[in-house]
Structures are given as structure tokens and as C-alpha cells.
Amino acid sequence: MLNTGTTAFMILSTSLVMLMTPGLAFFYGGLASKRNILGIMIQTFVSLGLTTILWIAFGYSLCFSGGEGAIIGNFDSAFLKNIPFNQMFSGGGNQYPTFIFVAYQMMFAIITPTLITGAFINRITFKGYLIFLILWQIFVYYPFVHMVWGGGLLATWGVLDFAGGIVVHAIAGFAALASVIYVGKRIDTKSPPNSIPLVAIGTGLLWFGWYGFNAGSELKVDAVTTLAFLNTDVAASFAAITWLVIEWSREKKPKFIGLLTGAVAGLATITPAAGYVPLWAAIIIGILAGSICYIAVQVKNKLGWDDALDVWGVHGIGGVLGTIMLGVFATTTVNAHGANGLVFGGGVFFLKELVAVVIAAAYAFVFTLLMLKLINYITPVKVTTATETLGLDMAEFGEKAYDEGAL
User: Fold this and answer.
1) CATH hierarchy code of domain 4-395
2) Among 201, 25, 207, which residue's Cα sits nearest to residue 115?
3) What 3-state DSSP class applies to 240?
4) CA-based nearest residue to 107, from 161, 57, 153, 47
5) Crossing angle, helix 142-149 and helix 98-115, to 10 degrees?
């Protein structure tokens, strides 16, 4: 029986998650140098089209059709052939059409690989990136969606991930690190952001969309939905202020970019735990996110990894940290479908979360590194020195983000 309220909520949540992809484009576009704004933004926007094609053709089927206890599903629902448009989604208590769930999960598939793009900004060819986008989803993203959310291997182990600490942030962040190691450093590693206001707009859209990302992952409307919503905002806020204070004390001036980056770190870190932990735990997670992700960025700088937009430090470390904190603070008193974490006597559950996120991060790192080497045999992955010097906007696309003299 159709529940119009829940149906409307899931449509809204799906729309909010879709909005996060343009938000990410603005966030990355503002951080990029003036010569590479369009290059990074098209890498994000193109996923809206290409990933949708893959998802409808076979992505949804591989993630959510068959394969119980396995690594990947099957092709029974390819092109949604066995899903009538008016079929009700069983996982939501038969409250809304399955097509909404298909669309909701598709928005996750769209944004996850685009998170990686900030790491290798202005160093990868567009043709190489398109091949990367396709292969990475098929061989990294789809298996982990199925294993965690599609009734696959990790789900049978009892691994939990409310909205994507493992499935989204950990695998994207460590894939980003592998990409950085493969393509090497930029020629100009100190290029400043071209538009901090654009970064702020992107952060605002991401923060706004994250309510659909996390609260919507309950897949229905109940008390856990509201808990996930509030936990999301609280963690982001505490992380933003924590990052601001740390950076202010070290550099003697408050940094707007730091405040914005801290907020995103908090959002990424609370994601796996949003609907499984009490509000007080979200405060702790936010403070830890702001401090540990900040430290990770400093470590990255000292090691000389040219992760241009700090994807590994914010999303990779945030996803791993959030998953571990889920293993620490989860409690069935706030979500009966969850588990008890370490502080509530769930030592075994904590170890499961720890092992699962380490496996996910390691696999994403190794596979991405090997995949980039394979793609390079098909088409060059890294741009030439001349292209990088000129900037991808003109060299690859023949377009400029701004008229001469605008900035």
C-alpha cells in the first residue's frame, strides 16, 4: 500500500543526493586553479549521465539482484526488466515504488567516483578518466554496495554501514590516494583556489544534500530518520569549528577554507554511523573528524603526496574513522536493527567494522593503482607537460570558465 508521505520523503531525499554532485563540482571548481575549473567540473557532471546509463543497464542489478552472501549480484534485473514501475519496495515496508529506491541508490553511484577527481585535478586526460569512471564502478563500487547493502558477503558477517562510510568514502578516498601516487605531483603545487565563494556555495549544497544522503538512508520515516538528520548536522558543525580552532591556533588567523573543509570532514565521518549512534556520540565523532582529518592532511603534506583537494585526508580517513567509531558507539537502544559497539559490550562487532573497512580501503587502493596502469595501455592517463601548463580547460576542452579580466 502506497504511503504518500514516505514516498514524498524518498523522492525529496533522492533529489537532495542528486544535488550533491553539482555541489561537489562547485566545491572542487572553486578550489581549482583558474585554468582547470571546467576540467574538474566536467569530470563531476559527466557522471550524472554516464553513471545513470551504467546503473540502469546493469549496475543496479549487480548491486541488488541475487548473490546472497556473495561478492556481486547477477543480471536478473538488467535494464530493470523484472521491475514493474508500480512494484512496491519490500525493504521500505511496501510504502513506495521500487523505482524510487533504484533512483536513490543511483545518486550514490553517481557521486562516489566523482569524489576521487579532486585528488588528481589537472593531471588526467578526459578520455582516460571516462574509462576509469566505468571500470572503477564495476569492479570497486558495485561489489562493495552488494556486499554491504545488497545482502552480500559483508552483510552476512554482520557489517553495518548506515550511509556509506565503507561503500562511499573509504573506497573513494583510498582510490584517490592510489591515483595521486600513480600520476605524481603537479607542476605547480601551490596554485591557490580561484574562488573561495564558489567553494562556500559547494559546501552549502553538499551539507544540504547530505541530509538526504544520511536521513534518507533509513529508507523510511521514523525516529531513526530524525536521529540521522540531527546527527549529520551536529557532527558537521562540531568538526567545522574544531578544524577552524586548530588551524587558527597554528596559523594565527582563522581560515574560511579550513572551516568549510572541516564541515565536509564531519559530514563524511558521521555518514556510516548517523542512524546507529546516539546524539552525544555524534558530538564526539565530529570533534574527532575535525582533528584527525586535519592531522591526516598535514601528514599527507609532509609525505609529499600531491592530493590536491585533500580527498584522502577528508573522505578516506573520514570514512575509515567513521566506520571505526560506528564500531565503538553503535547501540541497539537507538536502532534495533543496528548492533552494540565496543562501549556497549560489542567487541566482536567493533572488530568486524575494523576489518571490513581495512579490507575495503586496501582493495580500493590496490585495484585503482593496477587499473590506472591498465588504462594507460589503452590511452594515456596522465596529461602532457604542455597540457598541464596550459591548463585542461583550454588544452582538452577549448573553453574558459571566465572571460579575460574577470578574475
Assistant:
1) 1.10.3430.10
2) 25
3) helix
4) 47
5) 130
Domain boundaries, the chain: 4-395
Residue 234 half-sphere exposure toward CB, CA atoms < 13 A: 18
Grid coordinates representing 276? 546507529
Task: Extract the runs of DSSP E, i.e. beta strands, from 203-308.
Answer: none
| Cell numbers that stand for 171 in this block | 573506497
Q: With contact defined as beta carbons under 8 Å apart, do 98 and 144 qualify?
A: no
Q: Is the pTM of this model over 0.85?
A: yes
The answer to whether the CB of 46 falls within 8 A of the CB of 130 is: yes
pLDDT in tens, the chain (407 residues): 789 999 999 999 999 999 999 999 999 999 999 999 999 999 999 999 999 999 999 999 999 999 999 999 999 999 999 999 999 997 656 689 999 999 999 999 999 999 999 999 999 999 999 999 999 999 999 999 999 999 999 999 999 999 999 999 999 999 999 999 999 999 988 888 999 999 999 999 999 999 999 999 999 999 999 999 999 999 999 999 999 999 999 999 999 999 999 999 999 999 999 999 999 999 999 999 999 999 999 999 999 999 999 999 999 999 999 999 999 999 999 999 999 999 999 999 999 999 999 999 999 999 999 999 999 999 999 999 999 999 999 999 999 998 765 45
| DSSP secondary structure letters along 282-347 | HHHHHHHHHHHHHHHHHHHHHHT---TT-HIIIIIHHHHHHHHHHHHH--TTT-TTS---GGGT-H
Beta bridge partners of 88: 97
Residues 6+ apart with CB under 8 A from 193: 30, 31, 32, 199, 257
Torsion-angle region of 68 (φ positive above 0: left; ψ -120 to 50: alpha; else: beta): beta
DSSP 326-341: HHHH--TTT-TTS---
Cell 533529489, located at residue: 15
Taking the CA atoms of 169, 172, 176 and 178 in sequence, report the sign of the dihedral they define. positive
How far is the C-alpha of 312 from the C-alpha of 300, rounded, in Å? Answer: 9
